[in-house]
C-alpha cells in the first residue's frame, strides 16, 4: 500500500489534489475540481456588485496563473470588454503572466507579495523611489511606449525650502517596469490606488465564491465528473447574474430569497 509505485487514481475522473485557503479545523488540501472566475466589480446604488464574466472549471491541480491570460482574451473577444485592472489572490502572482498581460493587453494585475519577497535594493525600505533627502516621490503615470514609470517631487514636500537641493531639485525620475513586475507593474504596488484595491476590493472576491457555495447551495452537491462540474459552474454564474438583476428590481429581501430557492430547485439535478 504505502510502497506501491502505482500512480494515485480517484473514482472521480480527472479529479486531482489541490490546495485551498487555510481555515481552522480544515485540511489545506482537497481532491476534486476548482472554479476560477473573472468577475467585474461595479458599484451600484452604493453597494459593491461582482458580476461573473468568465469561468474555467478545471482539475484542482491546475495552476491558476496560466488561466488568467485566456480569461482576459475571452472577455475582450466575446464581450468586447477591456479590463484595465485585475485584482487577484496569491495564486496569480506569476511574474511572466503579469508582464505579458501588461504588454499585450495593457492590463494591470495586482496581487499581494509573499513575506519572503523583497522589492529591488534601491527601494527596499519604502517600496517607493525617494529623493536624496529621503522624501518619497509621487507617481505621475506609466508610459507604455518606454515601459517606464515617471516620478516627480511631491507638491507638499515636508522639507520645503530648507532642502539643500531646493534651488536645483531634479523634477523627474524614471523607473522601468522590468525592474520588478510585482512592485512596478502597470500600477506600482506602493501607490494609494493599488493598496486601496487590495485592501477593499480583494476581500470582495471571496464573497462571490461564498455565494456560489452557500446561497446557491452548491456545497450540497457531490460532483464526481469534470463535465458536470463545468455545467454547474456555468449555471451558477448565470444564476448570480439573474439574482443581481432581480435584486436591483426587488423592493424586499424576502422576494429575492424566494427567487434563490427557485434557482436552487432548478440546479438540483439527479445525476
Main sheet properties = 3 strands, antiparallel
Number of helix segments?
A: 5
Span between N and C termini?
32 Å
Structural class: alpha+beta
As residue ranges, the low-confidence spans are 266-271
Beta-strand proportion: 15-25%
Order of helices and strands: EEEHEHEEEEHHH
Cross-sheet strand order for the largest sheet: 1-2-3
Overall outline = elongated
What descriptive keywords fit this protein?
3-stranded antiparallel sheet
Describe the protein in words:
By secondary structure, the chain is of the alpha+beta class. The protein folds into 2 domains: 17-119 and 180-267, no CATH class; 121-179, no CATH class. 32% of the residues lie in helices and 20% in strands. It contains 5 helices and 8 strands, in the order βββαβαββββααα. The strands form 3 sheets. Strands 1-2-3 form a 3-stranded antiparallel β-sheet, sandwiched between helices. Strands 6-7-8 form a 3-stranded antiparallel β-sheet, with no helix packed on it. It has a two-stranded parallel sheet with strand order 4-5. A hairpin with a 2-residue loop joins strand 2 and strand 3. The longest helix has 24 residues, at 192-215.
Amino acid at each position: 500500500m504505502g510502497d506501491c509505485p502505482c500512480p494515485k487514481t480517484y473514482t472521480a475522473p480527472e479529479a486531482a489534489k489541490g490546495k485551498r485557503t487555510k481555515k481552522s479545523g480544515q485540511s489545506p488540501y482537497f481532491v476534486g475540481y476548482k472554479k476560477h472566475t473573472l468577475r467585474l466589480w461595479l458599484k451600484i446604488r452604493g453597494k459593491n456588485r461582482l458580476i461573473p464574466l468568465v469561468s474555467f472549471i478545471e482539475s484542482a491541480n491546475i495552476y491558476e496563473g496560466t488561466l488568467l491570460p485566456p480569461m482576459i482574451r475571452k472577455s475582450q473577444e466575446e464581450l468586447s470588454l477591456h479590463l484595465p485592472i485585475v485584482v487577484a489572490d496569491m495564486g496569480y502572482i506569476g511574474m511572466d503572466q503579469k508582464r505579458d498581460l501588461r504588454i499585450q493587453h495593457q492590463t494591470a494585475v495586482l496581487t499581494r507579495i509573499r513575506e519572503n519577497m523583497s522589492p529591488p535594493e534601491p527601494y527596499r525600505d519604502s517600496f517607493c523611489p525617494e529623493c536624496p533627502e529621503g522624501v518619497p516621490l509621487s507617481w505621475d503615470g506609466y508610459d507604455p511606449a518606454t515601459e517606464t514609470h515617471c516620478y516627480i517631487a511631491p507638491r507638499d514636500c515636508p522639507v520645503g525650502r530648507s532642502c539643500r537641493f531646493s534651488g536645483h531639485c531634479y523634477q523627474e525620475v524614471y523607473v522601468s517596469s522590468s525592474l520588478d513586475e510585482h512592485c512596478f507593474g502597470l500600477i506600482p504596488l506602493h501607490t494609494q490606488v493599488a493598496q486601496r484595491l487590495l485592501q477593499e476590493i480583494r476581500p470582495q472576491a471571496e464573497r462571490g465564491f461564498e455565494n456560489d457555495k452557500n446561497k446557491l447551495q452548491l456545497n450540497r452537491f457531490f460532483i464526481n465528473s469534470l463535465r458536470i462540474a463545468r455545467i454547474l459552474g456555468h449555471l451558477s454564474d448565470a444564476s448570480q447574474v439573474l439574482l443581481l438583476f432581480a435584486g436591483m428590481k426587488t423592493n424586499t429581501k424576502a422576494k429575492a430569497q424566494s427567487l434563490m430557492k427557485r434557482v436552487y430547485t432548478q440546479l438540483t439535478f439527479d445525476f
